[in-house]
């Protein structure tokens, strides 16, 4: 197997899935999942980011940079709530799709670990499920770059994986994320768990166990939906038919789960820092 390359991976995703849905969700969320599932996950993320923005307490008109902007969904949303947003992404194909939706905000090419901006250029930087796809050795550089381009008093919004495995994801524990950012001179305002989905995660674990018993020994890169698709279209329909129940029900109960479960049980952590 060839070594993982962040840029090559996302270029392939953009070329294959850039036109899979009008909102550009397939290429930045779960590539092989049905549209309804990505809309459900996007809704959960949007709720979490609104909560993070409330904690960040940004004034209207604040200049915000979305790092790894992909197809531009957060750039559009930030502008829609009165922030002066712009995006940067390392993948030209992603930026091409972003520009089909976003005709106003600047969208620039650049890598997270060497951002093409002056020091103290932004009031806020958002990093939404981006650094988790960067190999561990480059993650500290990317986070330090985000801190560098923030103004004193600026905010950093970070949503990243705190669990999981795969050849293209590199999660950290919540404490690791916090320590890495605070070591660059940031202060933690607060953090919370995002995407618990307990019932849906239980179903996926059972389905993965069943698939393994059937002789599927994947390398962790392929999602279970891909496994079902390989076995038969009928298996895929059964798999996603079941998740059409477990995922929305889990999403509906997540606000209650957040109140009673430790944040570390979530799939992602959402961290808000101040410089």
Entry summary:
The protein has 275 residues and is α/β, with parallel strands linked by helices. The protein has helices at 6-17, 35-56, 73-80, 92-101, 139-148, 174-182, 198-213, 224-231, 233-260; strands at residues 63-67, 84-89, 107-109, 122-128, 150-161, 187-194, 268-274.
Give a structural overview.
The protein is an alpha/beta fold. It has two domains: 6-195 and 262-274, Rossmann fold (3-Layer(aba) Sandwich), CATH 3.40.50; 198-254, no CATH class. It is 45% helix and 17% strand. The chain has helices at residues 6-17, 35-56, 73-80, 92-101, 139-148, 174-182, 198-213, 224-231, 233-260; strands at 63-67, 84-89, 107-109, 122-128, 150-161, 187-194, 268-274. Strands 3-2-1-4-5-7-6 form a seven-stranded mixed sheet, sandwiched between helices. Helix 1 packs across helix 4 (92-101), helix 2 (35-56) runs parallel beside helix 9 and helix 8 packs antiparallel against helix 9 (233-260). The longest helix has 28 residues, at 233-260.
Helical/strand content category: alpha/beta
Oligomer: single chain
Strand ordering within the main sheet: 3-2-1-4-5-7-6
- Alpha-carbon Rg, integer: 18 Å
Give the integer mean of the pLDDT values: 88
The proportion of strand residues reads 15-25%
Number of structurally distinct domains: 2
The coarse silhouette is globular
Ends: how far apart? 41 Å
* Low-pLDDT residue intervals, each spanning 5 or more residues: 216-231
CATH architecture of the largest domain, by name, is 3-Layer(aba) Sandwich
Fourth-tier CATH superfamily name of the largest domain: Vaccinia Virus protein VP39
Number of helices: 9
CATH class of the largest domain: Alpha Beta
């Amino acid at each position: 197997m060839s070594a993982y390359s962040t840029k090559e991976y996302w270029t392939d995703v953009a070329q294959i899935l850039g036109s899979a849905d009008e909102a550009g969700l397939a290429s930045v969320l779960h590539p092989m999942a049905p549209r309804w599932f990505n809309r459900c996950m996007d809704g959960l993320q949007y709720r979490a980011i609104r909560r993070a923005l409330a904690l960040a307490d940004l004034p209207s008109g604040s200049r915000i940079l979305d790092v790894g902007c992909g197809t531009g969904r957060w750039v559009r949303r930030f502008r829609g709530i009165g922030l002066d947003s712009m995006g940067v992404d390392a993948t030209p194909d992603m930026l091409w799709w972003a520009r089909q939706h976003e005709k106003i905000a600047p969208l620039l090419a650049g890598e997270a670990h060497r951002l093409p901006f002056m020091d103290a250029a932004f009031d806020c930087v958002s990093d939404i499920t981006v650094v988790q796809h960067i190999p561990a050795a480059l993650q500290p550089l990317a986070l330090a770059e985000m801190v560098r381009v923030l103004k004193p008093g600026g905010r950093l919004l970070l949503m990243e994986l705190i669990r999981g495995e795969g050849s293209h994801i590199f999660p950290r524990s919540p404490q690791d994320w916090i320590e890495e950012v605070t070591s660059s001179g940031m202060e933690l305002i607060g953090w919370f768990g995002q995407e618990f989905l307990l019932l849906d995660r239980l179903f996926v674990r059972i389905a993965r166990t069943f698939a393994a018993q059937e002789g599927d020994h994947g390398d962790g890169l392929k999602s279970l939906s891909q496994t079902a698709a390989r076995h038969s279209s009928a298996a895929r329909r059964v798999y996603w038919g079941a998740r059409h129940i477990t995922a929305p029900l889990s999403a509906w109960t997540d606000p209650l789960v957040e109140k009673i479960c430790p944040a570390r049980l979530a799939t992602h952590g959402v961290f808000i820092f101040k410089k």
